[in-house]
Design brief:
Layout lengths: L2 E6 L2 E4 L10 E6 L4 E6 L4 E3 L6 E4 L1 H26 L1 H20 L2
Antiparallel strand pairs: 1-2, 1-6, 3-4, 4-5
Helix pairs in contact: 1-2
Length: 107
């Protein structure tokens, strides 16, 4: 997964590029100080203010995560419906068998 920006308070601290922190960096939590830090490509350590960053992903990764979440919710809804309605469960099972047979036929 590629992290695009880390939002700290109301400003963004890019993890790449030429602004602070300089270039790519590694984000880590320092237990002794109870703070997030970034070590940039030059080995410099930068503190985050405040200590509650949020992470944004590049748009195509975010779309993929959104799709996966929606797909999981849809499958859960279908599973719940199948538990309530046995005839739907039977139809779903028959559909899955037919899908496998047709897929194997087209190989």
């Amino acid at each position: 997964m590629i992290v695009r920006d880390i939002k700290v308070g109301y400003q963004f601290q890019p993890v790449y590029g030429t602004s602070v922190p300089n270039g790519s960096g590694v984000v880590y939590w320092h237990n002794q100080y109870n703070k997030f830090f970034v070590i940039d490509q030059d080995g410099n350590r930068h503190e985050f203010y405040p200590d509650t960053p949020t992470i944004d992903l590049q748009p195509h990764y975010q779309k993929t995560l959104d799709w996966a979440y929606n797909k999981m919710m849809e499958e859960k809804n279908i599973e719940d419906l199948c538990k309530k309605h046995p005839c739907l469960s039977d139809a779903k099972q028959q559909f899955e068998v037919l899908k496998v047979l047709l897929k194997n036929e087209n190989i």
